[in-house]
Amino acid sequence: MKEYKIVRSETSWKNNTQNFEDLLNTYARQGWEVKDVDLVGGSASAFIALLEKSK
After folding, report:
1. What are the strands of the beta sheet with 2-10, ordered from one edge?
2. How is residue 17 annotated by DSSP?
3. Of all helices (H) and strands (E), which one includes residue 21?
4. Dihedral, CA atoms, 21, 3, 55, 29, nearest 10 degrees?
5. Which Pfam families match (predicted)?
6. Which one of 2, 5, 37, 52 is least enclosed by Cβ atoms within 10 Å?
7. How far apart are CA 34 and CA 23, in angstroms?
8. Which pairs with CB-CB distance under 8 Å and at least 24 residues apart come from 38-43?
9. Is there a contact between 48 and 38 (Cβ–Cβ < 8 Å)?
10. Given a cut of 70, is residue 6 above it in pLDDT?
């Protein structure tokens, strides 16, 4: 059985890609895998990632 999580990171475009990478790596250490990433909101105001792991 799979478990899913959606994580969101607001964009500031200065250092946010590194912050988002750090966030995803934190979840990866807990066993989560990134299944999809998208930019959402007006002018792409946030990164959204769909994570998956086995229960």
Report:
1. 2-10, 46-54, 33-40
2. H
3. helix 16-29
4. 0
5. DUF4177
6. 2
7. 11
8. 39/11
9. yes
10. yes
> What global pTM score does this model have?
0.80
Give pLDDT, residue 35. Answer: 98
CA dihedral 13, 45, 18, 52 (to 10 degrees): -160
In degrees, rounded to 5, the angle at the alpha carbon of residue 36 between the alpha carbons of residues 30 and 38 is 120
pLDDT in tens, 15-54: 567 788 999 999 999 999 999 999 887 666 788 999 999 9
The Cβ of residue 53 has, within 10 Å, a number of other Cβ atoms equal to: 14
Measured in degrees and rounded to the nearest 5, phi and psi for residue 16 equal -70, -30
**49 touches 24 (CB < 8 A):** yes
DSSP 4: E
